[in-house]
Design brief:
Elements: E1 19-23, H1 31-40, E2 44-45, E3 55-58, H2 63-67, H3 73-83, E4 89-92, H4 93-99
Parallel strand pairs: 1-2, 1-3, 3-4
Length: 102
């Protein structure tokens, strides 16, 4: 496992004024639907990870790979940003979906 990569377990997500980025493939969800969902909840979607990102949501079809250090370019960039002090959270798709259940 990549020592610089750690998921936030049981995240308490807030949306107002927050920035979300999505990466990887999602199980049963189109990315555009997830993007619209965060915007409907008062957050901003951004296609690129940056220091201003609050949450990086990682699709479940990419989880196994990330566990063994072969992450997407977005996750690799996120790890580098975290090393430089960025404060966003890595969130699993399932944890995101659990957090937004209506």
């Amino acid at each position: 496992m990549n020592p610089d990569f750690e998921y936030t377990m049981n995240p308490e997500l807030s949306f107002a004024g927050k920035s979300f980025c999505f990466t990887g493939k999602f199980d049963g969800y189109e990315r555009v639907a997830l993007e619209r969902d965060v915007e409907r909840r008062g957050a901003t979607f951004t296609p690129n990870i940056s220091n201003q990102t609050d949450y990086l949501i990682i699709g479940s079809k990419g989880l196994r790979c990330c566990s063994f250090s072969c992450c997407t370019r977005v996750v690799e960039k996120a790890i580098e940003l975290k090393k430089c002090g960025a404060s966003f959270q890595f969130i699993k798709e399932a944890d995101y979906l659990d957090a937004v259940k209506d």
